[in-house]
Amino acid sequence: MSLVSVIMPTFNKAQYLELTLTGFTLQTYTDFEIILVDDGSTDHTRQVAESFSANMNVKYIYQDNAGRSNARNRALDNANGEILVFNDDDRIPAPEFLQAHVDRLGTGEKLLSVGNKSEIITFISEKLDLAWDNFLRNFMIRHPELLAKNLEETQVQICQAEELAADFWTAMGQVLYRKGSDHYGEVVNQYGYDLDEFLFGWAICTTGNLAVRCPSEEQAIRFDESYTGWGMEDTDYAYQFVLQGYRVVCCEQAHNFHQVHPRSLQQTTELAANLKRFSRKYSKEPDATTEEPTVMMALYIRFLANRYTLPELNQIALELQDVKPSTFVLDYLKLVRQQASALLRSWS
Prior knowledge:
Elements: E1 4-10, H1 14-24, E2 32-39, H2 45-52, E3 58-63, H3 68-77, E4 83-87, E5 91-93, H4 97-105, E6 111-120, E7 123-124, H5 134-142, E8 156-157, H6 161-166, H7 168-175, E9 176-179, H8 185-191, E10 209-213, H9 233-243, E11 247-259, H10 266-281, H11 295-304, H12 310-322, H13 327-346
Parallel strand pairs: 1-2, 1-4, 2-3, 6-11
Antiparallel strand pairs: 4-10, 5-11, 6-9, 6-10, 7-8
């Protein structure tokens, strides 16, 4: 068996972390270590981590708050595994999670394995901002008792660690909310799990559920710590692998469940800033004299602005590969790049 290093930063999510680590006690693949980097938590994260150390190989590392990228790099520096699996502190893995990623990666080809992501509600309170839709309606039908709770004063825990350990899939069925918003099922439906002819595989990679064979020291890839706050540092990480010849594939059996939790309104601002940073970092042609993005990056920016779906985006990119560079095509590409530049400026 190959040793797997689970890379997991954490910050003030002790109650979610307990359920996540419980999921790892149920893994069918047992040769793994968890590198848990506590990025300056002020809650009882340390106690939660230490409560699992007797049953699992958990390496707990505390540091002053330095950000998500720094915490993951610290975990990578302390990892000993032949395979790296990224799993967030609020994502509960299915029992077959690690085995599925290991099988998908195989032994030879340079692959990034993107797992299957669903959303669950394990804790509910008035701070959890959920839109009333069919997903939430179906959830409340399964939990009518929640409607009688005084949610303004209390937080209700719906899923207990003991329930997970006793019957994982029944417990998940009770708290299932919806398919993960970052699952991109429409991409898999159109291009299959091998993502044949899909040029934007890096765009669906998130460190919430991602695996890769550990590169050699000469090819080691780290997270760019210039990204601050929330978002895009994991897209950048995956993009670096793609530039080194890795191929992105999907793995349906590598399933984990994101525990929906309250989010800061500041995340939207942080994401916008990081989107601009990512776009500009990879936008310049080798001989560029302006900050205008490359065609591929310009198309991606338009996806982020909700102008295209990923399949639509990819279809345009595929067609451009086969089109002769006529005046019309060159004018179109120039327009796309100018529009993307305008979008970047509008996000300032």
